[in-house]
Records
---
Amino acid sequence: MSKLKSAAGLVLSLLIAMPPGVFASSHREAPITALDHTADITDFYAFVSYDHPDRVTFVLNVDPFLQPSNGPNYFPFDPSIVYQIKIDNDHDARADVIFQFRFQTHILDAGLPVGYAGAGNGVNAPANSPAPIKPGTPIVPPAITSLTGDGAAGLSLQQTFSVNMIKGDRDIALTNTTGSPLIAVPSNVGPRTMPDYNALATQGIYDLQGRDGDSNIRVFAGTAADPFFIDLGATFDSLNYRAGTGVEALTPEQDADDQLSSAPNSVAGFNVNTIAIEVPIKLLTCDGALHAATDPKGTIGTWATTSRTEITIRRFANPALNFGRLAQIQRFGNPLINELIIGTGSKDFWSMSEPVKDMQFASFDLDPLIGRVFNAVYGFKIPTPPRTDLLPLVTYAAPIAPKGTPAGPIADLMRLNTGVPPTPKAQRKRLGLIAGDPAGFPNGRRLTDDVVDIVERVGVGGILSPGFNVAPNNLLGDGVNAPDVPPQEMFPYVHFAYSGRNSRHISPGDPTGCGDQPTSSSMQNSDAPPANQGGPSPCPVD
């Protein structure tokens, strides 16, 4: 903590170009992504893998607020978009390693009116079937139990994808170690169509290899439960929060419970499209080696982008052709994106720009308007601009990067010290680094890190500035302390998708809900969570 405070004393000139973001995550935050939802990056995560501390897991989520029951095509990835995860390993805010993901849609049964169908061992036409369909003719395929083979007969809408790793001038295709295609996991239609969805989704975890023998890379792509958590309704109602003290601050009891939600989680119950990749740290560092937390070579910066190809040609009865140069639609580094900082007229320009050029957005950051709104609405004191206390979020600085690490240019990258081991589950803190958990945000970002409360306290409350680590500044929060359903403890970490048939949105205290739950959950899922984790008690199936 003392190191983080001392960073505020670094040279002010480094901060003149501080990039955007002091609040929340990125669900429809800019005009261009409000209209182009498949290119909208909702969240980006990077952390040292819990069960493989020699690897880093990246999770890129796109396409917000996917209603689980919204068929018949549900929510495929967009074949005209190139999804990219970029890594800077020499502290210049430019990409040195890039992972590119491209998707292709296949319609396997052109006569089927829905994307996915199946029941039991299949359903045939009955004896009284009207002509010209003969009795015994297959009508409904068997339940979907596999991504390939006979158990996949009902997967009419199938997406395959490719993964390429770009290092310098080398473009390396990463392929399935079995030689089979990579198939994206479809949405969870329901228990008749997909009787064991968790088992089906697990089949979508693939081991990859490169031509140079690169191994220990795992990938997953498909629909999953959105792990983000926030009271969005209160946020956009001019910060009309429901927290316990009446000044947008939690009570000490609410703050101490990392699983409690005293306000509705607006994202609960919605799915999101997820790309997760686990990569050996040796493939990410500048010298191909593992480094201790004290070695500057062990700290990387990372961000994600979505880009559209310049040309798309739609052809009747054939897949569209997508080619040409790439135009970036959005980027995502820290979960401090531009909903409430960047002016609406600049949001699209910010989304399409490169982190290394973030000096052009300085005017929005040295005196963030959101801080003045909090000050005006709730009356508590905030730091006097220009803000120098946020420097570790936008340069390679302590306490994330060790002493001797070049600061680099001001840039919105998520910094991750790969030498810091993962924190065991029992010791993890939702408030991450400011609560003494060295593996938590802003040292990377885990799915359970409460970035809303963290950035309110640091970015608005200024608790890293002398004299501001006091109530209510150090108790600011939206009242949502945890995801609606817990993430997994192993790759791909996301909770698999909510069921379209058996899940519904429930407000806290709703008498039509499922009784007392361990959290004030806005959504309960009748399907059991993955076998390696616990979770809220399921709703009964009517």
---
Amino acid sequence: MARTTFRFVDLRLIAIGLVFVLAWAGIGYRLFQVQGADAAKLEQLGFDQRVRHETIEAKRGTIYDRDGLELAVTVYGKALIADPSLVEAPEEAAALLAPIVDADYVEMIQRLEGDGRFTYVARRLESDTVEQATAAIESAELVGFSFIDEPLRIYPAGSLAAPVIGLTRLDDGSGIEGIEAVMETELGGRPGKRVVERDQAGRAIPQAEFLLEPSVAGSDVVLTLDREIQYTAETSLQRGIERSNATGGSVIVMDVASGEILAMVSLPGFDASDRSTLDPATLRNRAITDVYEPGSTLKIVTVAAALEEGVVRPDTPFETPPEIEIGDETYTDHGNNAAVMTVSDIVAKSSNVGTIKIQRQLGNEAHYRYLDAFGLGRPASIDFAGESTGRLDHLSEWNNAAAGPSAAIGYGVGATPLQMAAVYATVANNGEWVEPHVVSEIIGADGERTITEPRRHQVISAETARTLRTMLRRVVEDGTGFRADLAEFLVGGKTGTSNKFIVETGKYSETETIAWFIGIAPIDDPEIVVVVVLDAPNGATDGGRYDMKFGGTSAAPIFAEIAESALHQLGVSPTHDGDD
């Protein structure tokens, strides 16, 4: 009987058959896993890869000046985004895109290699850059990249009123300085949410899952600033800084009846539209953050209190020797040779000795009460980020003999230019203190308007205020503030010069001063108060006759320029022909 023999070719066929059987079995098992056991899990994974939860940025509200001119507005640009889980070759993509969008190559790689499903690749792209990047992405068939609309904050007026308006953060657009920060809740609105399915190229899939929670646009904010007055104040202050070699300065123009800030200047300033030149040192708004000893400008409070309390009259005489000793302090009068001065003379000639004698009759308790009532020692407004409280030690801390006399002539008390604007506006407004404010109204996305109602309280009588204005007129007419006089309007005000306190040394500078002039215009029918402060002016004018470190020399002419222009801008008719 013959035996069957297996040939090598038969073994090979069996092996091949087994391979096919195993392969089909593997495929079948995999199909069972995919379509059966793991179907739900894989379906969810695919859904997660397609579906994206995206935030819909709310359109930020616009900031306007009092006439409806845009000071800060949001427009829309493009941002290049990526889904790192879909980017196959981060280094190659970065090498291609970084030069086009002007991004850092290494940083872009780090972003594209991240673990999340979303990252910004480049932001605030101009249209030509978007076109170049789009062409490069399509040419290289890159997946995981797309463009989205992105809100951009721009400032049409450039550097005008920049420290007041502030600026926003580049990454999330939230306010970080000025009104942008203070009014963040109102301006920022409420972001929305979007759930959308996208393909690997980032395109929305038609007829796919799409859920939407709309964003709510931010409210618009109308400021009290007058752009023309603001511009005049900035240019006049800049010229004054250059003329006096000062390191900086600030100006406030305030409507006396309403408390509205028509202009607020802080120099050096910045341009929020040009971040490349932004110096952090210029971000602060000197008018509300910097605290100075007001010097002689604070004498008006001492005299106001004494008049209101009936301690003195305008014609009350005081002996005024060249110097006076109080406790361990010696106070002097520079250039005052009169042996006797009335209260009106003391204000006009800015006599330290005379003012101290008035304060001694008034007493510390009453003096402190009026300093507090005029708003010293606390923020003047709620409209400003970082506003200082100034410094007014409580009466219980006036524990040396010279505390009251020093406060009488503007030392030992710290005030911001805004606080001092409110003090003089009180005198101009017949004794009623009105809260300074820069926000006029808020207009909601639904059109609802919220108008600012400033706080008010009476400090001195209208009669006392009128008497003080007469004295302040004399300061300009024949006193230390003659450079503030105007040809067409009767104005009044007060000069002030205080030695600059150097924080690093804890001592007063022997050479540097803070120079003030605060004026009311017109003095016979007040409309505005103008505060001018110069930081460390120096040099001389008129052939070296007058030292720039004094407020009457350096700050008063700046007041004159600003006040005259502002009154014309406001349509105030001239009240003076300049002949008397």
